[in-house]
Amino acid sequence: MLKKFSIVLLALLPLFVNAQNQAKEVDFTCALTGNVYQGDLTPSVLGSSKDLKLGLQGMVRYHLKGERVYLRGSLNIASLKGDDAQFDSPEWAKHRNYSFSTSLIDMSAMLEFNLFRDDKKFQPFVAFGFGFAKINPKRDISKIDTNYFAAVSSEQVGLVKEQSISQPKVLLTIPASLGFRYKLNAQSSLFLEACYKTCISDYLDGFSLSVRSQKFDAYAVYALGYTFKLNTKSKK
Fold first, then answer.
1. Is a pLDDT exceeding 90 seen at residue 216?
2. Residue 236's pLDDT is what?
3. What is the arithmetic mean of pLDDT over 47-74?
4. Residue 57: CB partners within 8 Å, gap ≥ 6?
5. Could you say which of 3.40.50.720, 3.40.50.300, 1.10.150.120, 2.40.160.20 is the CATH number of the domain covering 26-229?
6. Which of 11, 60, 152, 167 has a Cα at 20 to 30 A from 99?
7. Would you put residue 205 in left (φ > 0), alpha (ψ -120 to 50) or beta?
């Protein structure tokens, strides 16, 4: 194991040496986020503004290569919720009447690509990567209409099966985002981003077997914040 690690380290060494000979920048972004659940308890794949929950995000970004490529890590602390009773369509949703809420601690690592050069005032970007979401969903199934959904229905049978399943508390996520920074001066920028996060699980909301789709759940994070540089000096 040690031998393999040493080989990998030696292979990566030229990259680190090259990085030390270039001017590198590190910046930090603090942002207010709006988090929208997109899963089984909402009729639209885009979610609903009725489910919007506020949060806070911190992000560190490292100038990786050239003028347009960055590596960044972020932490978002928020919550999510969903409720069948909010929607009139489909008609059966009000009879199913599921709801849930969960805390959310969301960590991600992403590559960010600027579409314009760094010297431009307006800097649109795209980013993608991977992450983890720590959740603790609290389900409410007490309002289901048992006259509408019989004991043999997929909903009620699924609820029974879910009672014996150990549901995950940490989910792998695949984030992809689009946004821009607007330079205020050489040291700071305004930051705006929309990030779609697909969970590699159907248990973000605590429901899977008792709903009509077993597709992966997702959520969106909309961020508005302020970016400032921590270091603009080159290292040798």
1. yes
2. 43
3. 93
4. 29, 30, 31, 32, 33, 74, 75, 76, 77, 221, 223, 225
5. 2.40.160.20
6. 152
7. alpha
